[in-house]
Design brief:
four-stranded antiparallel sheet; 45% helix; alpha+beta; Lipoprotein; signal
């Protein structure tokens, strides 16, 4: 009787292991099947794109004008036209004004741009020639 119980204790874990391996094999098979289906769809999409090569029409770039930018010496009005309303500002009276556009700043004195810090790269600046 003791030998039978020992055999059961040895056989039961083995059966459990075999069943769990079979289950994971089924999951792997489903995963591989899904990957193969996705691969087939991607290959079809690539083929469709190759077959549908259309002539690309050349598009001329928009001409950039001075009204799209401001520079040192521009008026505060010009900066507001180009950049829109600032996210904040500091009015330092006779020492000028600082307009904030995110982390970037535009420094004004007597209503004209005297400097800027384009930290975020978001200022539309044109360096005067």
């Amino acid at each position: 009787m003791k030998n039978i119980i020992k055999c059961i204790y040895l056989i039961l874990p083995m059966i459990t292991l075999i069943l769990s391996c079979n289950s994971s094999n089924q999951t792997e098979k489903e995963y591989i099947k899904n990957l193969e289906e996705k691969n087939r769809l991607l290959e079809q999409e690539i083929t469709d794109l190759k077959n549908n090569t259309k002539e690309v029409q050349s598009v001329e770039p928009e001409k950039v004008t001075d009204k799209d930018f401001f520079t040192i010496g521009s008026t505060e009005k010009k900066v507001l036209e180009v950049m829109g309303n600032p996210t904040g500002y500091n009015d330092n009276g006779r020492f000028g004004k600082v307009l904030w556009y995110g982390l970037s700043t535009v420094k004004l004195e007597n209503g004209k741009v005297v400097g800027y810090d384009n930290i975020e790269g978001n200022l539309k600046i044109n360096i005067a020639e």
